Amino acid sequence: GDALSVWLKLRIRRNGKVHEIGFTHGVADAPLSVIGEYEGRSGTEVTFLASPQTFTMTDYDYGTLEHRLRELAFLNSGVRILLTDKRHSDVKQEELLYDGGLEAFVRYLDRAKKPLVDKPVAIKGEKDGITVEVALWWNDSYHENVLCFTNNIPQRDGGTHMAGFRAALTRQVTSYAETSGILKKEKVSLQGEDCREGLTAILSVKVPDPKFSSQT
C-alpha cells in the first residue's frame, strides 16, 4: 500500500525496541532502524499521506470510515477501534468495541425494528481450518438484509457463501415446517423467499488462503 502514498511512516514497537522506516512514493528512505526503546504495549503505527496521483479523491469521509470500522469491530469481537477526526476545531471521536460479535451486529442493524423472535440465532463452526459464523434475526418487515464477509471483507454479491447459506436456510425451515405438521395444517407451501422475509443476517467466513475476486 506504500506506493499509493506520497509518504508513509511505519513505527513498530516490539520486544522493547522501537523500529522505524519511511517511504516516499513507495521507495524506502533508509533501511529499518531502531530509534529507541519502550515499555508497555507492543504494536504498529502507520502514518501516511494518500497520493493524489493515484486517487482522484483524497478527502476522507468520516461516515464511510465509521461504517467500515464499525463492521470490523463487530466482526472481530473484543477488538477496540478508536476513530478520531481532528481536521476541524470540533474534534469528532468514536470508540467502537463490541463483545457480542455477530449477534450484536444484527441487533445493531435491527435496532429500530420489531423482532419476531426473542434473541438472534447465532451459529459458529469450523472445518478444514475454515471458520464460519452466522447470526440470524427476523423482524416484522418484508425486507431481507443479508451481509456476507470473507476474511472481514464485504462480499457485495454474496457469492457462493450466500448461495449456500440461502439453500441451507430454506432446507432447514421447510424441513421443520413439514415434520412439525405446520404445512399440512396451514395448507401452504414454502418458497426460499418466504424463509427470508424480514430476515437480517450476517455471514462471516474466515479462510486461511483466500482466492476470491469480488473483494474490492
TrEMBL record:
InterPro entries: HATPase_C_sf, Ribosomal_Su5_D2-typ_SF, Ribsml_uS5_D2-typ_fold_subgr, Topo_IIA, Topo_IIA_B, Topo_IIA_bsu_dom2
GO function terms (MF aspect): ATP binding; DNA binding; DNA topoisomerase type II (double strand cut, ATP-hydrolyzing) activity
Reaction equations catalysed: ATP-dependent breakage, passage and rejoining of double-stranded DNA
GO biological process entries: DNA topological change
Chain ranges of the DNA topoisomerase type IIA subunit B domain: 101-216
EC number: 5.6.2.2
A Pfam family recorded for this sequence: DNA_gyraseB
Keyword field: ATP-binding, DNA-binding, Isomerase, Nucleotide-binding, Topoisomerase
Keyword Transmembrane: no
Xref: SUPFAM superfamilies: ATPase domain of HSP90 chaperone/DNA topoisomerase II/histidine kinase, Ribosomal protein S5 domain 2-like
SMART domains found in the cross-reference section: TOP2c
Keyword Nucleotide-binding in annotation: yes
Family: Belongs to the type II topoisomerase GyrB family.
Name this polypeptide is given: DNA topoisomerase (ATP-hydrolyzing)
